[in-house]
Description:
This protein is an alpha+beta fold. It contains one helix and eleven strands, in the order αβββββββββββ. It has one helix at 3-28; strands at 37-38, 42-46, 49-52, 55-56, 65-71, 80-87, 97-98, 102-105, 110-113, 121-127, 136-140. The strands form two sheets. Strands 2, 3, 4, 6, 7, 8 and 10 form a seven-stranded antiparallel β-sheet that branches. It has a four-stranded antiparallel β-sheet with strand order 1-11-5-9, with no helix packed on it. The radius of gyration is 24 Å and the shape is globular.
Amino acid sequence: MRRPTYLLAILAMVFSTALIPAAASAAGHHGHRTCVSVQPEAGFYEGGRVGTAVLTVPDSRCRTISVSHIKDPANPSDRCQTFLVGFYPLTEDGSLTYTEPVTACGGHRTVLARNVPDGTEYIVLYDIDYLEQRIQFRVHH
């Protein structure tokens, strides 16, 4: 191999190995994931609303809490419900801080809360149309 060709081959190898970690880091967004989807467990019923068990926002780039895939198993054509989020920690009077109620329907995501930091604990509540109604839905956080 001639000396200039040999040097060019070495330089090409050095530059390509130097660029691979930078490209992988940019593509991986520093290890953060997008929104995580969960199907929450029912936690309680009170005053015409069902609340989920306590959920925690994972480490991710996702800064919203949203719901999707809403369905009433007892009435499959009913695919809409009113949801809100209650955030911990409790206020001085022992209550949660709530978002405004939002009506969400069907399979697309409806945002309930924005700018939610990682590690935030919360519950999702939904209004019921009749006693014993249990809506199926997914939470994305």
